DNA sequence: AATCTATTTAGAAAATTTTCTAAATAGATT
DNA sequence: AATCTATTTAGAAAATTTTCTAAATAGATT
């Protein structure tokens, strides 16, 4: 919660790729990790950052953990940017 | 140039405050620095990051350096976020 | 020309972030 | 119950970022 966490989460390229990847629907941690050239532990770390930022949510099913986008936080961020479109002088 | 730099620039709270501060129009490095409890050198560092990211531009006048928002990059960022509003399943 | 004023640059220390390896967890299968 | 499979957690090393102090720059004033 709080913009600080959300912006920090968005500042990493791997995490932005994960978000784009999830546009197509939910994916398991393993599916996500297989797209990157890093250990599953590292990808798990990135997923935890995205989750703390509220950008994704998790859902356990069998022994998989599926992640999906939480679009409402994207809207909040858009609002932040909207401040720059109005207040123009 | 490049989203990486722009998102990194936006990930710091001090820098986001600077951007909000510049909505009201251009401000000198000194005016900006006086709003923070850190050295002018540190604020100068943050300004350089914002400038490299294309979020602000500078303009020299007398021995002041004025900074102002570069709104076009904000639009590019908004476009990035727009990707998440469409591709919904 | 000497000095002042506003700002940046260089270099180092401190803080934070990213990554890895190894171990832990927890549900599913045998 | 033992083992397998998917994933996370802990702890450490490496990389990056933030901050400071001190010095440099460069235009303006005396």
Structure description:
- The structure is a homodimer of 89-residue chains.
- With 89 residues, chain A is an alpha+beta fold.
- In chain A, 57% of the residues lie in helices and 16% in strands.
- The first copy, chain A, is built from five helices and three strands.
- Chain A has helices spanning 3-10, 13-21, 29-33, 40-52, 71-86; strands at 27-28, 56-61, 64-69.
- The first copy, chain A, has a three-stranded antiparallel sheet.
- The radius of gyration of chain A is 14 Å and the shape is elongated.
- The A-B interface holds A 3-4, 7-8, 10-11, 13, 16, 19-20, 23-25, 69, 71, 74, 77-78, 81, 83-85, 87-89 and B 3-4, 7-8, 10-11, 13, 16, 19-20, 23-25, 69, 71, 74, 77-78, 81, 83-85, 87-89.
- Chain A binds a DNA duplex (30 and 30 nucleotides) through residues 8, 12, 14, 28-30, 33, 38-42, 44-49, 60, 62-65.
Average pLDDT score of chain A: 93
The number of strands of chain A is: 3
Low-confidence stretches of chain A: none
- The helix count of chain A comes to 5
Structure characteristics:
5 helices; 3 strands; alpha+beta; DNA-binding; three-stranded antiparallel beta sheet; homodimer; 89 residues; 57% helix
